[in-house]
Amino acid sequence: MEDDNGLDGDLNANVRCQRTGDPKLDKAVQHWLAWDRNQWTRAQVESLVGAGRVDDLRRRLCSRMSFGTAGLRAPMGAGFSRINDLTVIQSTQGLYSYLCRYFADFSSRGVVVGFDTRGQEESGCSSHRWQTHTLSRDVPVHLFSSFIPTPYVPYAVKKLGAAAGVMITASHNPKEDNGYKVYWCNGAQITSPHDKEILRCIEEQLEPWSASCWDVGLVDRCSLRTDPLTQINSCYMDELASLCFHR
């Protein structure tokens, strides 16, 4: 059974009782509280509702990050317009859905995933944490076991023949920001029409697929996960050295 906002009628009372007076915003708040399992970002939204900070809530919940040629980039924190556990999970679901449709051999090629050292304590958000939210039980993931420089991901995509790559970083942006960069099978950042199609796939399935999406222990139990760090570091440095000329 569903309530008047299209949400399951068995949502707990804490989710149902949150009201701002704006029907569209109320629906966004209810979706957030129904889906978000990160205690820090969930608490941020609950605090804003309790304080009646409607404008802040609208900025965070009534718009989404745009998915362009560089993927996603935004401040860390609660809200659909920011980067956090939930929006990373949603982005991964959309990306995997599109790759499944585009590559007949996606289940064997898999993806490459890397991350940097960014994090925000008050949101419980970090690049390292989000590596878990890029895993799947059904698709091989070449997941670097330690933080790496961004070029390692597109290099590994081509070297390993992966369908795509994800680098969790915001490069030179302010420390409050983070990002979800996507690389195509040729090692280049995604371009049109892939970016628009991935965004469409994200918006088609915003609700997390299952509780396992939030399982931070999955990274240690995923049988399809491999660590390319040693191989890629060695190959990258060898090829880089071959391009250098010394007197």
UniProtKB/TrEMBL annotation:
Q: Look up keyword Transferase and say if it applies.
A: no
UniProt KW keywords: Carbohydrate metabolism, Cytoplasm, Glucose metabolism, Isomerase, Magnesium, Metal-binding, Phosphoprotein
Q: Which cofactor does it need?
A: Mg(2+)
Keyword check for Metal-binding: yes
Subcellular location(s) per record: Cytoplasm
Gene Ontology MF term list: glucose-1,6-bisphosphate synthase activity; intramolecular phosphotransferase activity; magnesium ion binding
Output the GO biological process annotations, alphabetical, semicolon-separated: glucose metabolic process
Q: What are the record's GO terms for cellular component?
A: cytoplasm; nucleus
Q: What is its main location?
A: cytoplasm
InterPro entries according to UniProt: A-D-PHexomutase_a/b/a-I, A-D-PHexomutase_a/b/a-I/II/III, A-D-PHexomutase_CS
Alpha-D-phosphohexomutase alpha/beta/alpha domain: which residues? Answer: 65-205
The record's PROSITE patterns line, in alphabetical order, gives: PGM_PMM
Q: Which family does it belong to?
A: Belongs to the phosphohexose mutase family.
Q: Which PANTHER family match?
A: GLUCOSE 1,6-BISPHOSPHATE SYNTHASE, PHOSPHOMANNOMUTASE 45A
Q: What is this protein called?
A: Phosphoglucomutase 2-like 1
Q: Which organism is it from?
A: Haplochromis burtoni (Burton's mouthbrooder)
